[in-house]
Fold this protein.
Amino acid sequence: MLIRRLDLTQGLTDDVTARYRAAQEGFLEGAPSEEAARRWFDVDVADGTRTWVVDPEPGSLLDTPVATLSAVHATANAGAGPVPAALLTDAVVRPTHKRRGLLRRLMQTVLADAADAGCLLASLTASDGGIYHRFGFGVATHRATVEVDTARFALRTPPTGRVELVDLGLAEVRRTRQDLFARFHATRRGSHERRGFYDPWLAAEWDFETNAPDPRLQAAFHRDDAGTVDGAVGFKGTWGERLTVVDLVTLNPEAELALWRFLADIEGPTGLTVRPYGLGGPLEWALVNPRCLRVTDVKDALWVRLLDVPTALTRRGWDRDGQTTIQVVDPMAVAGGTWRVTVRDGRADVEPADGAAAVTLGLDTLGTLYLGEAVGPALAAAGRLTGEPADVGDLVRLFAVDEPPLNLSYF
């Protein structure tokens, strides 16, 4: 069965529409409406989405692809600023065609294309946590869902600045929100560039999950004492039910806490549900009663695979000096090798190394360490870092970061 790349330059053809059907039906979402397909097509064209499909066998009664995988070439922040990255999405294999190696072949094609284009890493969010490690992806960030008891909400210190509700239909609001995220993305480790669907979604024009406009969505900005917007929140709810926070982007703790205070003051809801919530933020420690914040779910969010190990390590932000020699094992036999990594003043020199390495690890484990997820000791305890205890400890300390990674983008 041949893999082919879709041609989006011919417009929203039957061929492209069939791929949207395959993707949505693969996630049990049903066939997209004509309007939904058109909106997804507009996003894919704007993003430069690269999509590959596997067609059914000749004579099949199925008129949609049996497998598909897409990638958007964008950027991810590795701690020293954004680097080229491939954002993988819509990995679907029909149940009738599983265990034939189709996903592996699609993955090889997409990753090779991304590497040829200069992407240093590939990222994805997974619907199943047991699939992607065998392709060299490792869990790089986690996401949480939390509930906030607004009836008992009180901060230890009053928030600063001011919060204002905004009209989602204004072009200035859209531009301000885009600029805010661009500033966040440029400075926050772990952030991934947002796909084009975020703009119409956060403007309440079109919700790509419900395939309809969302008239209940509202938004507010926070301005610092100088009047500069440094935070934004999108939320929706119904009187007598929990308010849902769908997006929260802030540049500093002051803006974040002020927006939490604003949300807690909204009359009518019985509390807040927040997803995704960035673990390690200031809210828990700023509350008078920390039990007002309850974590109801934590799961893997972002999975990362390095495509060019030495270059990706040189482009990473480092918070500690040190030296180690690593042997990286790639299950797809593409990006593995042995390198000496020397870090001084936040920059790494990476050179090929001969002989035995101090630490051996899988490419998936390196993907977990790369953005700075604080699980190095746990990885060592789980046997995913092989070497003398002192050498493993040196590597764990070298990869540790002062600020945890935070990704607010899904794709």
Remarks:
- The CA atoms of residues 226 and 295 lie 34 Å apart.
- The radius of gyration is 23 Å.
- The mean pLDDT is 95.
